[in-house]
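Lab notebook, design round three. We kept the backbone fixed and only want residue identities now. Task for the bench partner: fill in a sequence for the structure below.
Input C-alpha cells:
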C-alpha cells in the first residue's frame, strides 16, 4: 500500500479544485481564508509542504470531504 503524504495533495489540487467550480483564486481565498499566493503556489506545485490546516480549509471551501485532496476522490467524495 502506497503511503500518501500532504505532498501528494498539491498534485491533486487542480483536479477536484477551483477551476471545476469556476472560481478564481481570489474567490477561493475569500471562501477558504487561505491567501491567494498560497493557493497559487499550491497549484503551481511550488509549495513542497502544505500545512494540514491549509488543505483542510481548501477542502471545506471546495465542498470536498476531508481527505479528498490527500487521498483522492476514491477515498473522499463530494460532500454535497
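Proposed sequence:
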Amino acid at each position: 500500500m502506497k503511503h500518501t503524504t500532504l505532498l501528494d495533495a498539491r498534485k491533486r489540487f487542480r483536479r477536484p479544485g477551483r477551476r471545476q467550480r469556476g472560481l478564481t483564486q481570489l474567490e477561493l481565498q475569500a471562501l477558504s481564508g487561505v491567501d491567494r499566493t498560497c493557493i497559487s503556489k499550491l497549484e503551481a506545485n511550488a509549495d513542497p509542504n502544505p500545512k494540514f490546516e491549509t488543505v483542510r480549509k481548501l477542502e471545506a471551501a471546495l465542498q470536498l470531504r476531508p481527505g479528498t485532496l490527500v487521498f483522492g476522490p476514491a477515498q473522499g467524495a463530494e460532500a454535497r
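Keep this in mind before ordering anything: Residues 6-63 form a domain with the 434 Repressor (Amino-terminal Domain) fold (CATH 1.10.260).
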